[in-house]
Amino acid sequence: MTITRRFECALAATKDKVLALYDKNPNYPPKALCKAAGFQFYNTSRFTLGELCNDPDHLAPDFISYIEGFSSNVQEILLSEARGLDFGKQITKMDKNNCLLAVVKAFSELDLDPQTIDNVKMGYTFEDLIRRFSENAEAGDHYTGRDIIKLMVNILLSEGCDDIFDDGKIKATNFVQEKTKEYKVSDLTAQPVVKLPTADTVSLAPAKEERLSQIIAEINSRTGKNYDNNVAVKAMLQIKDIMMKSDKLKTSAKNNSEKDFEFAYFNNIDDALIEGLDQNQDFFTLLLDNEELKKEVLGIFADEIYQHLRQE
Question: How many whole angstroms separate alpha carbon 273 and alpha carbon 245?
Protein backbone atom coordinates (compact mmCIF):
# COMPACT_ATOMS: atom_id res chain seq x y z
CA MET A 1 0.00 0.00 0.00
CA THR A 2 2.85 2.36 0.78
CA ILE A 3 4.38 1.80 -2.66
CA THR A 4 1.04 2.22 -4.41
CA ARG A 5 0.32 5.49 -2.61
CA ARG A 6 3.85 6.77 -3.32
CA PHE A 7 3.37 6.11 -7.03
CA GLU A 8 -0.05 7.79 -6.97
CA CYS A 9 1.25 10.93 -5.25
CA ALA A 10 4.19 11.19 -7.64
CA LEU A 11 1.91 10.99 -10.69
CA ALA A 12 -0.84 13.29 -9.38
CA ALA A 13 0.44 16.47 -11.05
CA THR A 14 0.51 14.94 -14.55
CA LYS A 15 -2.35 12.43 -14.25
CA ASP A 16 -4.87 14.51 -16.22
CA LYS A 17 -2.41 15.01 -19.08
CA VAL A 18 -1.73 11.27 -19.30
CA LEU A 19 -5.45 10.44 -19.20
CA ALA A 20 -6.17 12.90 -22.00
CA LEU A 21 -3.55 11.30 -24.24
CA TYR A 22 -4.71 7.79 -23.39
CA ASP A 23 -8.41 8.58 -23.90
CA LYS A 24 -7.63 10.09 -27.28
CA ASN A 25 -5.65 7.02 -28.30
CA PRO A 26 -5.49 3.87 -26.10
CA ASN A 27 -2.57 2.68 -28.24
CA TYR A 28 -0.46 5.72 -27.44
CA PRO A 29 3.18 4.54 -27.04
CA PRO A 30 4.27 3.76 -23.45
CA LYS A 31 7.43 5.86 -23.85
CA ALA A 32 5.30 8.85 -24.81
CA LEU A 33 3.02 8.31 -21.79
CA CYS A 34 6.09 8.13 -19.54
CA LYS A 35 7.30 11.42 -20.96
CA ALA A 36 3.91 13.01 -20.31
CA ALA A 37 3.92 11.63 -16.75
CA GLY A 38 7.42 12.91 -16.06
CA PHE A 39 8.52 9.51 -14.69
CA GLN A 40 9.47 6.11 -16.03
CA PHE A 41 5.96 4.91 -15.20
CA TYR A 42 2.36 6.13 -15.51
CA ASN A 43 -1.25 5.24 -14.72
CA THR A 44 -4.18 5.35 -17.16
CA SER A 45 -6.90 4.44 -14.66
CA ARG A 46 -9.44 7.11 -13.77
CA PHE A 47 -9.53 5.77 -10.23
CA THR A 48 -7.55 7.14 -7.32
CA LEU A 49 -7.29 5.49 -3.91
CA GLY A 50 -9.68 8.10 -2.55
CA GLU A 51 -12.23 7.54 -5.31
CA LEU A 52 -12.11 3.77 -4.82
CA CYS A 53 -13.65 4.28 -1.37
CA ASN A 54 -16.80 5.79 -2.92
CA ASP A 55 -17.97 2.33 -4.00
CA PRO A 56 -17.24 -0.09 -1.13
CA ASP A 57 -19.26 -2.92 -2.72
CA HIS A 58 -16.89 -3.09 -5.68
CA LEU A 59 -13.73 -1.98 -3.94
CA ALA A 60 -11.68 -5.15 -4.49
CA PRO A 61 -12.21 -5.49 -8.28
CA ASP A 62 -11.93 -1.73 -8.75
CA PHE A 63 -8.65 -1.71 -6.81
CA ILE A 64 -7.26 -4.44 -9.07
CA SER A 65 -8.43 -2.44 -12.10
CA TYR A 66 -6.69 0.64 -10.71
CA ILE A 67 -3.39 -1.24 -10.34
CA GLU A 68 -3.75 -2.67 -13.85
CA GLY A 69 -3.87 0.92 -15.08
CA PHE A 70 -0.21 1.36 -14.15
CA SER A 71 2.52 0.83 -16.72
CA SER A 72 3.81 -2.72 -17.07
CA ASN A 73 6.91 -2.13 -14.92
CA VAL A 74 4.80 -1.05 -11.93
CA GLN A 75 2.31 -3.85 -12.50
CA GLU A 76 5.18 -6.32 -12.29
CA ILE A 77 6.26 -4.84 -8.95
CA LEU A 78 2.78 -4.92 -7.46
CA LEU A 79 1.07 -7.94 -9.02
CA SER A 80 3.67 -10.45 -10.18
CA GLU A 81 3.72 -13.60 -8.08
CA ALA A 82 7.18 -14.64 -9.24
CA ARG A 83 8.98 -11.29 -9.34
CA GLY A 84 6.77 -8.84 -7.42
CA LEU A 85 4.63 -8.43 -4.33
CA ASP A 86 1.68 -10.55 -5.51
CA PHE A 87 -0.51 -7.79 -4.11
CA GLY A 88 -3.68 -9.17 -5.70
CA LYS A 89 -3.74 -11.90 -3.05
CA GLN A 90 -3.42 -9.32 -0.29
CA ILE A 91 -6.33 -7.34 -1.71
CA THR A 92 -8.47 -10.49 -1.73
CA LYS A 93 -7.37 -11.35 1.82
CA MET A 94 -8.20 -7.87 3.16
CA ASP A 95 -11.53 -7.91 1.35
CA LYS A 96 -12.52 -11.26 2.90
CA ASN A 97 -11.59 -9.95 6.35
CA ASN A 98 -13.61 -6.75 5.87
CA CYS A 99 -10.65 -4.43 6.37
CA LEU A 100 -9.88 -3.40 2.78
CA LEU A 101 -11.98 -0.23 2.88
CA ALA A 102 -10.38 1.00 6.11
CA VAL A 103 -6.87 0.33 4.79
CA VAL A 104 -7.43 2.00 1.40
CA LYS A 105 -9.10 5.01 3.02
CA ALA A 106 -6.24 5.45 5.51
CA PHE A 107 -3.58 5.34 2.80
CA SER A 108 -5.57 7.61 0.47
CA GLU A 109 -5.18 10.36 3.09
CA LEU A 110 -1.43 9.88 3.44
CA ASP A 111 0.77 12.52 1.77
CA LEU A 112 3.69 10.73 0.13
CA ASP A 113 4.30 13.32 -2.58
CA PRO A 114 8.03 13.47 -3.53
CA GLN A 115 7.88 17.21 -2.93
CA THR A 116 6.84 16.51 0.66
CA ILE A 117 8.89 13.41 1.41
CA ASP A 118 12.10 13.04 -0.58
CA ASN A 119 13.62 9.72 -1.62
CA VAL A 120 15.98 9.48 1.36
CA LYS A 121 13.12 9.90 3.83
CA MET A 122 11.04 7.46 1.81
CA GLY A 123 13.92 4.98 1.98
CA TYR A 124 13.95 5.26 5.76
CA THR A 125 10.20 4.67 5.79
CA PHE A 126 10.52 1.46 3.78
CA GLU A 127 13.39 0.24 5.94
CA ASP A 128 11.40 0.85 9.10
CA LEU A 129 8.37 -0.96 7.70
CA ILE A 130 10.53 -3.94 6.78
CA ARG A 131 12.10 -3.92 10.25
CA ARG A 132 8.75 -3.67 12.04
CA PHE A 133 7.14 -6.55 10.18
CA SER A 134 10.17 -8.82 9.88
CA GLU A 135 11.14 -9.11 13.54
CA ASN A 136 11.19 -12.91 13.41
CA ALA A 137 12.85 -13.14 10.01
CA GLU A 138 16.21 -14.70 9.25
CA ALA A 139 19.36 -12.60 9.22
CA GLY A 140 19.57 -10.51 6.07
CA ASP A 141 15.80 -10.27 5.57
CA HIS A 142 15.71 -6.62 6.60
CA TYR A 143 18.04 -3.65 6.54
CA THR A 144 20.33 -2.24 9.19
CA GLY A 145 19.47 1.41 9.82
CA ARG A 146 21.82 3.86 8.11
CA ASP A 147 22.47 5.67 11.38
CA ILE A 148 23.69 2.37 12.86
CA ILE A 149 25.89 1.72 9.83
CA LYS A 150 27.38 5.22 10.08
CA LEU A 151 28.08 4.69 13.78
CA MET A 152 29.76 1.33 13.13
CA VAL A 153 31.94 2.78 10.36
CA ASN A 154 33.04 5.69 12.54
CA ILE A 155 33.91 3.33 15.40
CA LEU A 156 35.92 1.11 13.06
CA LEU A 157 37.81 4.09 11.66
CA SER A 158 38.57 5.35 15.16
CA GLU A 159 40.46 2.17 16.11
CA GLY A 160 43.55 3.07 18.11
CA CYS A 161 42.20 6.40 19.37
CA ASP A 162 42.86 6.73 23.11
CA ASP A 163 39.77 8.82 23.81
CA ILE A 164 37.11 6.74 22.08
CA PHE A 165 35.66 5.58 25.40
CA ASP A 166 35.59 9.02 27.00
CA ASP A 167 32.20 10.24 28.21
CA GLY A 168 30.35 12.18 25.56
CA LYS A 169 32.77 11.22 22.78
CA ILE A 170 30.05 9.50 20.75
CA LYS A 171 26.70 11.26 20.69
CA ALA A 172 23.53 10.48 18.81
CA THR A 173 23.58 14.01 17.39
CA ASN A 174 26.75 13.13 15.50
CA PHE A 175 24.76 10.84 13.26
CA VAL A 176 21.67 12.85 12.44
CA GLN A 177 20.81 12.59 8.75
CA GLU A 178 21.54 15.83 6.94
CA LYS A 179 18.68 17.46 5.09
CA THR A 180 18.70 16.42 1.48
CA LYS A 181 17.88 18.39 -1.60
CA GLU A 182 14.18 19.12 -1.83
CA TYR A 183 12.29 18.35 -5.01
CA LYS A 184 10.98 21.15 -7.13
CA VAL A 185 8.30 20.95 -9.78
CA SER A 186 10.95 21.37 -12.46
CA ASP A 187 12.68 18.21 -11.20
CA LEU A 188 9.55 16.17 -11.72
CA THR A 189 8.36 17.39 -15.09
CA ALA A 190 9.75 16.23 -18.42
CA GLN A 191 11.47 19.03 -20.30
CA PRO A 192 9.78 20.15 -23.53
CA VAL A 193 11.48 19.40 -26.82
CA VAL A 194 11.30 21.08 -30.18
CA LYS A 195 8.45 19.99 -32.44
CA LEU A 196 8.91 18.56 -35.91
CA PRO A 197 9.42 21.24 -38.52
CA THR A 198 6.96 21.69 -41.35
CA ALA A 199 9.55 22.78 -43.89
CA ASP A 200 9.75 20.67 -47.04
CA THR A 201 13.40 21.39 -47.75
CA VAL A 202 15.56 18.58 -46.36
CA SER A 203 18.67 16.95 -47.73
CA LEU A 204 20.43 13.61 -47.51
CA ALA A 205 23.30 12.08 -49.45
CA PRO A 206 21.97 9.86 -52.27
CA ALA A 207 23.70 6.76 -50.88
CA LYS A 208 22.14 7.26 -47.44
CA GLU A 209 18.72 8.01 -48.88
CA GLU A 210 18.92 4.81 -50.89
CA ARG A 211 19.94 2.85 -47.79
CA LEU A 212 17.08 4.39 -45.79
CA SER A 213 14.64 3.37 -48.53
CA GLN A 214 16.01 -0.18 -48.40
CA ILE A 215 15.54 -0.32 -44.62
CA ILE A 216 11.95 0.90 -44.91
CA ALA A 217 11.27 -1.76 -47.53
CA GLU A 218 12.77 -4.37 -45.18
CA ILE A 219 10.57 -3.11 -42.33
CA ASN A 220 7.49 -3.45 -44.54
CA SER A 221 8.52 -7.00 -45.41
CA ARG A 222 9.26 -8.02 -41.81
CA THR A 223 6.23 -6.40 -40.17
CA GLY A 224 3.61 -6.79 -42.87
CA LYS A 225 3.17 -3.01 -42.91
CA ASN A 226 2.93 -0.82 -45.98
CA TYR A 227 4.75 2.37 -45.07
CA ASP A 228 4.97 4.82 -47.94
CA ASN A 229 8.66 5.18 -48.72
CA ASN A 230 8.61 8.89 -49.60
CA VAL A 231 6.58 9.83 -46.51
CA ALA A 232 8.79 7.78 -44.19
CA VAL A 233 12.01 9.15 -45.69
CA LYS A 234 10.74 12.71 -45.37
CA ALA A 235 9.75 12.12 -41.75
CA MET A 236 13.21 10.76 -40.94
CA LEU A 237 14.86 13.73 -42.63
CA GLN A 238 12.76 16.03 -40.48
CA ILE A 239 14.07 14.20 -37.41
CA LYS A 240 17.57 14.72 -38.75
CA ASP A 241 16.88 18.43 -39.15
CA ILE A 242 15.84 18.67 -35.49
CA MET A 243 19.04 16.94 -34.40
CA MET A 244 21.10 19.38 -36.44
CA LYS A 245 19.58 22.30 -34.50
CA SER A 246 19.89 20.81 -31.02
CA ASP A 247 22.07 22.84 -28.63
CA LYS A 248 22.30 19.84 -26.32
CA LEU A 249 23.66 17.65 -29.10
CA LYS A 250 26.02 20.40 -30.23
CA THR A 251 27.55 20.50 -26.74
CA SER A 252 27.78 16.71 -26.70
CA ALA A 253 29.45 16.60 -30.11
CA LYS A 254 32.09 19.15 -29.14
CA ASN A 255 32.95 17.35 -25.89
CA ASN A 256 32.69 13.66 -26.76
CA SER A 257 33.91 11.05 -29.16
CA GLU A 258 31.48 9.96 -31.87
CA LYS A 259 30.77 6.73 -29.99
CA ASP A 260 29.90 8.57 -26.75
CA PHE A 261 27.90 11.13 -28.72
CA GLU A 262 25.51 8.40 -29.85
CA PHE A 263 24.07 8.05 -26.31
CA ALA A 264 22.85 11.67 -26.32
CA TYR A 265 21.82 11.33 -29.95
CA PHE A 266 19.42 8.43 -29.40
CA ASN A 267 18.02 9.98 -26.21
CA ASN A 268 17.10 13.13 -28.14
CA ILE A 269 15.61 11.09 -30.96
CA ASP A 270 13.09 9.57 -28.54
CA ASP A 271 11.90 13.09 -27.65
CA ALA A 272 11.60 14.06 -31.30
CA LEU A 273 9.69 10.90 -32.20
CA ILE A 274 7.25 11.50 -29.35
CA GLU A 275 6.67 15.09 -30.44
CA GLY A 276 6.07 13.92 -34.01
CA LEU A 277 3.54 11.20 -33.22
CA ASP A 278 0.63 13.17 -34.65
CA GLN A 279 2.37 13.38 -38.01
CA ASN A 280 3.27 9.71 -38.41
CA GLN A 281 2.05 7.84 -35.36
CA ASP A 282 2.20 4.26 -36.60
CA PHE A 283 5.74 4.46 -37.96
CA PHE A 284 7.13 6.50 -35.08
CA THR A 285 5.49 4.18 -32.53
CA LEU A 286 7.17 1.23 -34.23
CA LEU A 287 10.55 2.92 -33.81
CA LEU A 288 9.89 3.91 -30.18
CA ASP A 289 8.94 0.35 -29.29
CA ASN A 290 11.81 -1.32 -31.11
CA GLU A 291 15.33 -0.20 -30.16
CA GLU A 292 16.93 -2.32 -32.88
CA LEU A 293 14.85 -0.79 -35.67
CA LYS A 294 15.24 2.71 -34.27
CA LYS A 295 19.03 2.43 -34.25
CA GLU A 296 19.04 0.88 -37.71
CA VAL A 297 16.88 3.60 -39.24
CA LEU A 298 18.12 6.68 -37.41
CA GLY A 299 21.68 5.50 -36.92
CA ILE A 300 22.20 6.43 -40.57
CA PHE A 301 22.36 10.09 -39.60
CA ALA A 302 24.54 9.84 -36.48
CA ASP A 303 27.98 10.30 -38.08
CA GLU A 304 26.84 13.13 -40.36
CA ILE A 305 25.17 15.01 -37.50
CA TYR A 306 28.18 14.49 -35.24
CA GLN A 307 30.60 15.92 -37.81
CA HIS A 308 28.30 18.82 -38.62
CA LEU A 309 27.78 19.85 -34.99
CA ARG A 310 31.41 19.35 -34.04
CA GLN A 311 32.54 21.75 -36.76
CA GLU A 312 30.02 24.50 -35.96
Answer: 15
